[in-house]
Amino acid sequence: MHHPAPRHPRLDPLADRYAARTHGMKASEIRALFSVVSRPEVVSLAGGMPAVTALPLDAVGSMIGELVSGMGAQTLQYGSGQGDPRLRERICDVMALEGITDASPSEVVVTVGSQQGLDLVTRVFCDPGDVILAEGPSYVGALGVFQAAEARVRHVPMDDDGLIPEALEQTLLECRAAGDRVKFLYTVPNYHNPAGVTLSEPRRQAVMEIADRYDLLVIEDNPYGLLGFDREPMRALRARDDRRVIYLGSFSKTFSPGLRVGWVLAPLAVREKLVLATEAQVLCPPSLTQYAVARYLDTQPWREQIKHFVELYRERRDATLESLEALMPAGTTWTRPDGGFYVWLKLPSGLDAKLMQPRAVNAHVAYVPGIGFYADGAGREYMRLSYCYPEPDQIREGVRRLARVIEAELDLHSTFDRVDTGTFRAVSGPQGPSGRGVEGIVGPANSDRYEDLG
Q1: What phi, psi does 94 have (nearest 5°)?
Q2: Are 98 and 147 in contact (CB under 8 A)?
Q3: Are the C-beta atoms of 63 and 256 separated by less than 8 Å?
Q4: Which of 259, 9, 282 is nearest to 120 (CA)?
Q5: Tens digit of pLDDT for each residue in 70-114?
Q6: With contact defined as beta carbons under 8 Å apart, do 375 and 147 qualify?
Q7: b/e 214-237 (16+ beta carbons within 10 angstroms → b)
Q8: Buried b (16+ CB within 10 A) or exposed e, 167-196
């Protein structure tokens, strides 16, 4: 019998053995930047890393030390697949701040961050080829989960008020006409990652009415809901429908991302499936981190700590918006978040954030290109700027560097446009590969601009 040769035998002798689902796997646009943004000279407006140094680290350290010395037998042992009962009770207290007052600890499944919760929900509901509706743009980590499950993503447009209900209904009608099986809508309604916008109150009602009319399951991912700058937390979608909405929460943005503690709130029948999926995947969530979060909620002024985070992030948001207003060239637009971590910036016409990225890194500023937040290759004219981690002065310097990169890119495009229309004549100079004088393409002024960027 003839066996086909491995596809890449020299690079990877196991290349012909991988599952089909691995073929589309790729590094996220954010993870690919890690080696760059760790360099001290680079101002990173890329990663959404919370400002954990604003925590009372001495008190948290003492709390964890006392926890291990006093409860080591429990904290260092296996636990329940559903999660620690005391922590699940406290999670219900946290959700009550967003109007979810009917949640029972029995409906909560503790997860390794809300990322695992999203993976579990997708495993439980999706078969290969199923359709998932998601905002366009959408959280890059969710797109990775959906791709791994071999689901197809249909993006639903957004504007400054969040997901557009009419577009959601139109997409559902198109899927129905095409015979597609829509499993759920995935949405980040509060201070959206990456768009920074929030689903307005009238639209929340409209989305839930559409979900009811079309028998649509909604996955509400809400890591930022308590981080609003100018208002009380908005009422969660789950507070409006306990049957149709599965809620994902996380302590990564309000306490510590390194502890990796999140949760899923789901109806009891779904909860059973999620617990079974957890046990197959990791046996149980880590006991030590669960006890640490529960003890933190029991003993520390966590509500005041969240207010402290909010003030810190508001100051950094303000520095970002003021700098963008003062420095960005004409034709650049951006969202104005009233909470969370992110600004979504649209470049002037013709520019490509992915192609521009190496020049930005050379200028010691990092961002995430918009293409990483779409499943269909869209978003090249966008970038995500994160203001949560750098100090305000660093943000101002990062925006200044970025504005110069964009201006240089505009100058370069303008020059090429003149060449293309025949109104710009190349001057003599060093010969490039095409034989055309490179000074005639870049021009002395633009050359200087790019030297400045280094």
Answers
A1: -65, -45
A2: no
A3: no
A4: 282
A5: 888 888 899 999 999 999 999 999 999 999 999 999 999 999 999
A6: yes
A7: eebbbbbbbbbbbbbbeeeebebb
A8: bbbebbeebeeeebebbbbbbbbbbbbbbb
For residues 33 and 365, give the distance between their C-alpha atoms in angstroms, rounded to a whole number.
Answer: 11
Sketch out the chain's domains with CATH numbers. 23-48+306-453 (3.90.1150.10), 56-300 (3.40.640.10)
Residue type, 147: Q
- CA distances, 23 to each of 7, 31, 147, 201 (Å): 12, 19, 10, 41
Map tokens 């967003």 to a residue: 98
Q: Look-up: residue for tokens 């209904």?
A: 169
- Structural tokens at position 206: 């409209």
How far is the C-alpha of 392 from the C-alpha of 386, rounded, in Å? 12
Q: What's the pLDDT tens digit per position in 273-309?
A: 999 999 999 999 999 999 999 999 999 999 999 999 9
In the numeric block, the tokens 């949405």 are attached to 187
Tokens 């989960």: give the residue.
Answer: 145
- Give Cα separations from 439 to 412, 419, 442 (angstroms): 12, 12, 5
C-alpha span between 454 and 449 (Å, rounded):
9
